[in-house]
Known about the structure:
Blueprint: E1 2-7, H1 15-30, E2 34-39, H2 45-56, H3 62-86, E3 91-94, E4 101-103, E5 112-115, H4 118-125, E6 129-133, E7 136-138, E8 144-146, H5 152-162, E9 167-172, E10 193-195, H6 196-204, H7 212-221, E11 225-229, E12 237-240, E13 252-256, E14 259-268, H8 273-283, E15 291-293, E16 300-308, H9 312-326, E17 330-334, E18 337-343, H10 353-363, E19 370-374, E20 377-383, H11 387-399
Parallel strand pairs: 1-2, 1-9, 2-6, 3-6, 9-11, 10-12
Antiparallel strand pairs: 4-5, 7-8, 11-12, 13-18, 14-16, 14-17, 15-16, 18-20, 19-20
Helix pairs in contact: 1-3, 2-3, 5-7, 6-7, 8-9, 10-11
The chain binds aspartic acid and magnesium ion.
Magnesium ion binds next to loops.
Amino acid sequence: MLxxxxxxxxxxxxxxxxxxxxxxxTEKYKEGNKIIVVVSAQxxxxxxxxxxxxxxxxxxxxxxxxxxxxxxxxxxxALLAMAIEKMGFPVVSLLGWQAxxxxxxxxxSARIKRIQTERIKAELDKNNIVVVAGFQGxxxxxxxxxxxxxxxxxxxxxxxxxxxxxxxxxxxxxxxVYTADPRKIKxxxxxxxxxxxxxxxxxxxxxxxxxxxxxxxxxxxxxxxEVLSSKSRVPGTKVKEAAKMxxxxxxxxxxxxxxxxxxxxxxxxxxxxxxxxxxxIAKAHINVDIILQSVGRxxxxxxxxxxxxxxxxxxxxxxKEYIDMVGAKEISFDTDVAKISIVGAGMETHEGVASRMxxxxxxxxINIQMISTSEIKVSVLIEAKDADRAVSVVHAAFFDDSxxx
Length: 405
Ligand code: ASP
Ligand code: MG
């Protein structure tokens, strides 16, 4: 069986961690599997390198940034290979270009174009454990590129796809995906399985377990992922096309406090207003999440929408001129809000999920300001101060018998 294993920065942070990873890798190797290991830079190395660059030149070109940042992974692959060597197993470490990662030339957020697998295959044929630097590749000019922060998940999934691996195991500092944040909700439970679509919804909610691009790629090429921890040797959560049919309607309840609500009050109620507003927002490269438009009255209406918390200012600035021109009463934003969401493919075929969520929030005296839904997600915007309590009552409604407050 061919297995791709990926270890994040915290899993290889120091010598002890590196040996722990070497244990995990060689255990699987001893069972007779072929192993490709993808690693990130140790601990905070990438952040430290960015800091070093700032000291020299805060406006360094992206090409030189990639040259610098790719060094982090060069260190970790060599150290891991040395640890595996010391344990007496055949191993070889490869940089992105050596492993055949060809990318486009968008430095610092390059896309993988193809992976030339000859070298990796030759090493596997020699029974070597192959340790590959994540997050990096080479463009057609022979220059080093990187895939963007958190990009080694994508390196691992891409390798699993082209090599037709049995599974891509992604080791992180959490041991799986939970029904809610286990640090906040006592009886949050670990999920055995979750679908790609559910995982993508959770990732955009800020549950940063896996890099989004890696999940999109896994979905596209049907690569089964397992999220697990390198510290606790227990099975993790599998991310795959169709999770086994279970009675679970909802997979997870999550909160996102990285939200700003922008309000435009008293804008003329005429055709084209929404286009004028949101085309300006798009031009400013601001992502809009929930949108609410009030019913017109006195020939005016209100439009409210949400953006990431740090984009509130920019959103208002992008609209200032237009608002002045057409004469709206007011534009403002506040960040005193939170988005609470429930995610689950099961709700596609079951009615009443959204209303149950609204019911328990109402019973808890929590006011809903905005609502948005997709086939597999219901989100509400509420006051930030109610966020934790909201997750707790919503989680209880779908996962317990008793409402613990
Ligand atoms: N070392 C890179 C980063 O910190 C890539 C990764 O960790 O996936 O963003
Ligand atoms: Mg990292």
